[in-house]
Amino acid sequence: MILKSFEDFRIGDYLLLLSTILTIYVAQYYYKYFTRVNPLPGPFPFPFIGNLIQFYWWFKGDFKVFYRRLDEIFKKRRQEIENTSLNKPLPNDMLTSVITANTPRDVNYTKTVGGEALDRPMTYSEIGGIIFDGFLGGSDTTANAISFIIYYIARNPDVKKKMIEEINRIFQGDKIRPITENDFQKLKYCEVIVKEVSRIFPRCIEKSDEITGYQWPAGTMFRINADVIHKNEDCCEDPDKFNPDRWMVEGLESNKHSLLMFVGGLRICPGRKLAMIELICLMALHII
């Protein structure tokens, strides 16, 4: 969320967010190195499960404070939206889009989909879930991706040259105007760079089943070896070479299962389009 004035800045909120992030990392380290599955009869890991339970309750209380602050932000933004006249444009940000979803202020507003009514706006709990998912699932992944994009562009001058030529052809050196949807659709080479970087770098069953002649008990975790799929020579020639131009070949997109950038099926990444927009626009803004 963009601060409108210095009065909106509350150092306590940022300290709370920082403490939550540190708590997550400490919890992951603690569980990995100080708990093990107990081979003896009993319901708990051994030997530090008591400390872990106490740690969990402190962690849970921290989240209550965090969500309470989020509710305050949501209510304030919803009030601002309600006080804004219909002929005045609203801020173009994720929070505003989520709050106005399924309301007349929604640019994609529709009353029904498949016969199901969609005239109910989201609750604060639903809004909080979406925003929090964006924090946890969309911040570090995008940051890591743009880091590797910069790395591979720096390592491949020919790729960098083509990218700059495409960006200059679209923006003509204009460093002021914002990137439009039409501009984004033309940034094809930037898009294939993102795909190539993603290429070169579980699910759990609820009941027992038979797959390819093998019996799998309930609770079995399945993990996909994406690296083997991405470097399958049947799908791409010279797979160990960084070559974004491979994605410009006509017909390659038809083999949609050869790139598991956002996985697929029921558990496909819900923020895949937003992630692509962020990555491509960051590349363009860096050059303009």
Automatic annotation (TrEMBL):
Keyword Membrane: yes
Cofactor(s) of this protein: heme
Keyword RNA-binding in record: no
Keywords recorded for this protein, A-Z: Heme, Iron, Membrane, Metal-binding, Transmembrane, Transmembrane helix
SUPFAM superfamilies found in the cross-reference section: Cytochrome P450
A GO molecular-function annotation: heme binding
Entries under Pfam families matching the protein: p450
InterPro entries xrefs: Cyt_P450, Cyt_P450_E_grp-I, Cyt_P450_sf
Binding-site list for heme: 269
Coiled coil, from the record: none
Transmembrane spans: 12-31, 43-59
Protein name: Cytochrome P450
Species of origin: Rhizophagus irregularis
Taxonomic lineage: Eukaryota, Fungi, Fungi incertae sedis, Mucoromycota, Glomeromycotina
